[in-house]
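Consider the following input, taken from an annotated entry for PX domain-containing protein (Balaenoptera physalus).
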Amino acid sequence: GHEPEHWSVYRRYLEFYVLESKLTEFHGTFPDAQLPSKRIIGPKNYEFLKSKREEFQEYLQKLLQHPELSNSQLLADFLSPNGGETQFLDKILPDVNLGKIIKSVPGKLIKEKGQHLEPFIMNFINSCESPKPKPSKPELTILSPTSENNKKLFNDLFKNNANRAENTERKQNQNYFMEMMTLEGVYDYLMYVGRVVFQVPDWLHHLLMGTRILFKNTLEMYTDYYLHCKLEQLFQEHRLVSLITLLRDAVFCENTEPRSLQDKQKRAKQTFEEMMNYIPDLIVKCIGEEAKYESIRLLFDGLQQPVLNK
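Applying the prediction step yields:
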């Protein structure tokens, strides 16, 4: 086979930055391939250049991994021993002479005596700023209607103007009401259970969503009051004694014989029937008998899992 070829290319410190500037001008920026900050002030001796050698080597390796640079004549000339020596020397800026600046600027200010300083300052600022690189091909950005609508609904001035859940993306063939949203309060919990577990029809879900702003706070205040009253009744002394006794008998009672398989099946059937009868008839008329059976079956099977029971 052919032996691998080896050659040496000698490049100056600033030539790497000229290469980066020209690649940015013709191909745009490469986020994963960046040179370290250019040292303008200070000596560039052997120790300094040696410390930057690995970073420059890594920069070139990452450039060679980009497919769009596989046919780049600019990169090929930079790595070729006889190619393009002058094109990387044209844009090399001379080192900044701080002593000259320190001497010339006060002299300019004294000469002008405080007059006509604004054009001088603007020209001085422009001379210090490097020109912004321009990509060779202008980018065409097409904004989708969704992004335009999000700009109107979410902005810095009006914040969440439509009170929508953030980070929700509508997908094709996806129910809008099944999108990810934050649940707050009993009203939202009941709507979620009704939609996911009991599979309420769309018209009922739309109606509940429309009346949410009217009845949400009222229902939650009533629920808080109802739970507060029930907990006060439950925490009375004679009721606590009864609950503790039942808990003791259920956990520590050793005289109870284990139930047979028939007893377990009979009790499970009785529990399922009582759960079916617990649903009000009005809800059954809205969701239908089949949805009622499937939802109760889902709840019943979920409660039979040993992990959930623990």
